[in-house]
Write a structure and sequence with these properties.
The complex is a heterodimer. Chain A is mainly α. Chain A has helices at about 15-35, 50-80, 95-105, 120-145, 150-155, 165-200, 205-210, 215-220; strands at about 5-10, 210-215. Chain A contains 8 helices and 2 strands; from the N terminus they run βαααααααβα. Chain B is about 40% helix and about 10% strand. In chain B, the strands form 3 sheets. A 5-stranded parallel sheet of chain B has the order 2-1-3-7-9, with helices on both faces. Chain B has a two-stranded antiparallel ribbon with strand order 4-8. In chain B, a hairpin with a 2-residue loop joins β5 and β6. Classes of the chains: A mainly alpha, B alpha/beta. At the A-B interface, α2 and α6 of A face α13 and α17 of B.
C-alpha cells in the first residue's frame, strides 16, 4: 500500500562526506589499532617496517578522523535542521515522545516505526554519546602520543591527561572504547537496514545521495 | 625550603677530589669520571671542566641515609658496585653520617649521630630516603629508635637542604603502597609536603643517577630540572621504548611470542610479552645497572615499569600489554570483555530480527 511520498533532501554534502570519511578512518583505525595492541602478523626480516607503517597509518587516519569531526561539528551549527546539534540532545517534549516511541518499536511494544526526515530521537541521542566516545578516543590517543611528543602543543592536545590518569589506564580505555565503537557500528548498520525495510523511506540510500522518502505527515 | 638559590654544601673534611686521590685515582681517572657524570646529566662537553672544578673545590657534602619500609635494595645496588665507580663516590667519598645498613655505630649512638647532623648542619645536608612512609594509625607501622618513620622524615628531611628519594618506594610508595596498601604507605613528598625532593625512582635506583644528582647540586647549587613527578629530566626525560636497543625489531614487526622461542633467542622486541618500556621513562637503556653491565631488556625480560608511580597496581600483569579492566575477575582481559560486548550486541540484533520474524509484522500498518 504505497503512500504518497515526498522526496526530501535530508543529508547535505558535508554530512555525507564526513560520514564516509569517518567510516574509512574508523575501519583503518580499528584494523591498525588491533595490530598495535596485539601484533598478529610478524616480520620475517629486520629490514621490514610493519609496525612502523601500521603506526603511521593509525596516526594519519586519526588526524583525518579528527578533521572530519571538526567539519561535522562545524556543520552542526552551520548546516540544515537535520544536521543540527539540537537533534543530538533531547531538548524538547516532542523529542522525548519520539524517543519513547522509537524505543517501544525496537522492543516490539509498538508497531509504528519511528519516522523522521532526519535522525530519529534515539539515533540523535545515540550520536551524542558516539561523539563523546570519538572525543575520548582522540583525547586518549593524543595523551598516548604525548609520551614521545613533548612540548606545549602536545600537552594541550592530550598530554595533560597523563597527569591525571595512569598511562596504562588510558591505554586500557582507549582499547576498550574500540569495542564499544564496533558494537555501535554493528547496531547502526542493522537498524539502518531494518528501518529501510520497515519504513521504505530509502534510509540506506540516503547516506549516499542525501534523499529520503517521507510521508507528508513527517515533512510537516 | 627554597632550593632555587645557591647553596654551599658544608662538610667536615676535604673535597671529593681529595678523597679520590687518596683512594688512588689519577688525574686522568678523575677527568674520565667528570666526563661520565657530564654525559649522565645530559650536559654538553664544556661542562666537564665546570664539574671538575666543583669536585675540586666544593667541600664534601654531608649525607644521611634513612631507611623506612624498604628492602635495602637501593643500598645493595650501591654496595654491589665492583670497581671504583660513581657508586663509590656516594658511599666512600661523600660524608655519610648515618646509614643504618652500613654504619658501624648502633643503637643510641647511631641515633645521636643523626640528631647531631640535624642540629649542627641544619639546611646544609642532603637527606637520602629509601623506602616508603606509612601514614596509617599515626605512622606506628614503621618505627626506628621508638620514633615513627613519619616523625623522623619530618625532622630530618624538613631540615635538609634537599631530599633525594632513592627508589620507587621512597618516591611514590612503591610495593608497600600497592593495593590494598595496608599501612597507607606513601612516598616522601606525600608524607612531608613542601620540601625540595628529587625523586630517583626505579627498583632499584641507579648509582649513576644518584651521583649525577649530587654532583649537579654541588656544581650548580640547585636541583636539576624535574619532570611532573619530580624526577630529574636528565634521567627520566626519555621513554625507555624510544632508546631501547630492541626498538628496531619493534618497528620491523619482530616480536618474542613465547619465552625461549626463536624470536627470544634472536633478541627481538618484548612488546608482546608485556614489556612496559612504552610507558616508562628512565635512562636504563643508556646507563643500565651494575656498572653498566646489563639491564632487564638486555637480558631478555621486558621492562616492568618500576620507575613509574603505582607500577605494582597499574603496570601489572607484567606479561600482558594491558592492565585488567576494573570490576572483572582476575582472568578477564580487555579483549575478552570487549568481545563480550560485541557478542551481546550481535546477539541482541539476532534476537531482534528473529522476534520480528516471529511476530510477522513486516509491513507498516499506519
Amino acid at each position: 500500500m504505497p503512500k504518497e511520498r515526498i522526496r526530501a533532501y535530508a543529508w547535505e554534502i558535508p554530512v555525507r562526506l564526513t560520514h564516509w570519511i569517518n567510516f574509512v578512518c574508523i575501519v583503518a583505525l580499528i584494523v591498525t589499532g588491533f595490530y598495535i595492541g596485539n601484533p598478529y602478523a610478524h616480520a620475517y626480516s629486520s629490514s621490514q617496517y610493519i609496525m612502523g607503517w601500521i603506526r603511521f597509518v593509525h596516526f594519519t587516519a586519526a588526524y583525518f578522523f579528527l578533521m572530519s569531526l571538526v567539519i561535522r561539528i562545524y556543520w552542526a551549527f552551520a548546516g540544515n535542521r537535520y544536521a543540527s546539534w539540537r537533534v543530538w540532545l533531547l531538548l524538547t517534549k516532542q523529542q522525548w515522545q519520539d524517543f519513547w516511541g522509537a524505543l517501544k518499536f525496537y522492543l516490539f511494544l509498538s508497531k509504528h516505526p519511528p519516522c523522521a526526515v532526519g535522525h530519529t530521537a534515539i539515533a540523535g541521542f545515540t550520536y551524542f554519546f558516539v561523539f563523546i566516545l570519538f572525543g575520548w578516543q582522540i583525547l586518549s590517543g593524543f595523551a598516548l602520543h604525548s609520551l614521545t611528543h613533548t612540548g606545549p602543543l602536545w600537552f594541550y592536545l592530550g598530554g595533560w591527561l597523563t597527569g591525571m590518569m595512569h598511562m596504562q589506564t588510558i591505554r586500557l580505555y582507549h582499547h576498550m572504547a574500540t569495542y564499544v565503537i564496533i558494537s555501535f557500528a554493528v547496531a547502526h548498520v542493522y537498524i539502518a537496514w531494518y528501518l529501510t525495510l520497515k519504513e521504505r523511506n530509502g534510509l540506506m540510500g540516503s547516506i549516499f545521495d542525501g534523499y529520503k522518502f517521507v510521508t507528508g505527515k513527517e515533512w510537516e | 625550603m627554597d632550593c632555587s638559590g645557591k647553596h654551599d654544601v658544608v662538610s667536615s673534611e676535604g673535597t671529593i677530589y681529595e678523597s679520590l686521590l687518596k683512594k688512588g685515582f689519577s688525574r686522568r681517572d678523575f677527568l674520565k669520571l667528570c666526563t661520565t657524570l657530564t654525559a649522565t646529566l645530559s650536559l654538553p662537553a664544556p661542562f666537564v671542566s665546570r664539574i671538575a672544578e666543583a669536585l675540586e673545590t666544593k667541600k664534601k657534602p654531608i649525607l644521611v641515609w634513612l631507611e623506612f619500609q624498604d628492602c635495602a635494595g637501593n643500598s645493595e645496588a650501591l654496595l654491589r658496585a665492583t670497581k671504583p665507580t660513581v657508586g663509590e663516590i656516594v658511599l666512600d667519598t661523600l660524608s655519610i653520617e648515618y646509614h643504618e645498613t652500613i654504619m658501624a655505630a648502633a643503637g643510641h649512638q647511631a641515633e645521636k649521630s643523626l640528631a647531631d647532623v640535624v642540629a649542627n648542619h641544619k639546611g646544609n645536608y642532603i637527606a637520602a630516603v629509601e623506602g616508603s612512609i606509612p601514614m596509617k594509625d599515626g605512622g606506628v607501622h614503621c618505627c626506628i629508635g621508638g620514633r615513627s618513620a613519619l616523625e623522623i622524615a619530618r625532622e630530618v628531611c624538613g631540615n635538609a637542604m634537599a631530599t633525594i628519594a632513592m627508589g620507587t618506594c621512597a618516591c611514590f610508595g612503591g610495593i608497600p603502597a600497592a593495593a590494598p596498601n595496608p599501612t597507607e604507605a606513601v612516598g616522601v613528598s606525600a608524607a612531608v609536603p613542601n620540601i625540595p625532593v628529587v625523586n630517583l625512582s626505579g627498583c632499584p635506583v641507579n648509582a649513576e643517577n644518584i651521583t649525577a644528582t649530587v654532583v649537579h647540586l654541588l656544581t650548580f647549587g640547585t636541583l636539576p630540572a624535574l619532570d611532573k613527578f619530580n624526577r630529574p629530566l636528565f634521567a627520566y626525560g626519555k621513554r625507555i621504548h624510544d632508546n631501547c636497543e630492541r626498538r628496531a625489531h619493534f618497528d620491523a614487526g619482530q616480536y618474542v611470542r613465547r619465552w625461549g622461542d626463536e624470536g627470544h633467542r634472536e633478541g627481538w622486541c618484548l612488546y608482546e610479552m608485556g614489556c612496559k618500556g612504552p610507558e616508562t621513562f628512565k635512562n636504563c637503556p643508556r646507563i643500565k645497572y651494575n656498572d653498566g653491565t646489563n639491564w632487564p631488556v638486555g637480558s631478555g625480560h621486558g621492562c616492568i615499569g618500576c620507575a613509574e608511580p603505582a607500577f605494582w597496581d597499574r603496570m601489572t600483569p607484567f606479561y600482558e600489554r594491558l592492565p585488567q579492566p576494573p570490576g572483572f575477575g582476575v582472568e578477564a582481559t580487555a579483549d575478552k570483555v570487549g568481545l563480550g560486548v560485541a557478542a551481546v550486541t550481535g546477539a541482541a540484533i539476532v534476537a531482534h530480527g528473529i522476534g520480528r520474524m516471529i511476530s510477522g509484522k513486516n509491513t507498516r500498518e499506519d
